[in-house]
Each structure stands twice: as structure tokens, then as C-alpha cells.
Amino acid sequence: MNTSSSRRTFTTTQRKNPAMCQHQPPCPTADSADREAARLTAHHPEQGWSLLCNGVLLFEDTGELLPDGQIIAPHRPLGTDRVMRAA
Ligand SMILES: [Zn+2]
Predict the structure, then answer these.
(1) Ligand 1 centroid vs 29 CA: distance in angstroms?
(2) Is 44 contained in some domain?
(3) Which of 19, 39, 59, 87 is the most buried (most CB within 10 A)?
């Protein structure tokens, strides 16, 4: 009798460093504050999104979808790509 299969595994891909990052220095993880500094692994401007090396999905309106399903609301004006704005 096998009754141990009722335990659901909840620890699939959550809270781990992305093993696919081959960069030096390594990209920031998805739960670090500068997650957007990770390298792009896929860029689809025609669809309005980019995939970062750490698994973060970055949308052109600066919204983000984290690998664990968390949604980050847009927080930068459109069109200013990391450029300092004086006004
Ligand atoms: Zn990387």
C-alpha cells in the first residue's frame, strides 16, 4: 500500500537562484532590488515584453512578472530607459 503520495510538493521552482545564469558577475536574483539589471535572455518589443536572465518578465510599461507569480506594477515613465531625468 502506498499512502505517501498524498503529500503535495510545493517546492518546485520557488526561491532558488536561477541555475541558468552563466554571467560574470552573476545577474541579480528575481527577488533582489535591482532585478532589472539582469541580462536579457529574450526580447520581444513587438509583443512588449522581455525576459531577463533571472526569470523576470519585464514589460515595456515597466511592469514586471516575477518567476514566483508576483506582479510588480509599472514604476517608470514609458520611454525613459534608465536615463536620468533632470525634470
Ligand atoms: Zn545571467
Answers:
(1) 9
(2) no
(3) 59
Residue 21 lies in a domain: no
Helix, strand, coil percent content, the chain, rounded in steps of 5: 5, 20, 75
- Per the structure, the count of domains in the chain is 1
> Which residues neighbour ligand 1 (ion) by CB within 5 Å?
21, 23, 27, 39, 53
Asked if the structure places residue 54 within a domain, the reply is: yes
Q: Under a CB-based contact definition with an 8 Å cutoff, are residues 63 and 71 in contact?
A: yes
- pLDDT tens digits for range 42-71: 999 999 999 999 999 999 999 999 999 999
pTM for the full predicted model: 0.64
Say if 8 falls within a structural domain.
Answer: no
Average pLDDT, the chain: 79
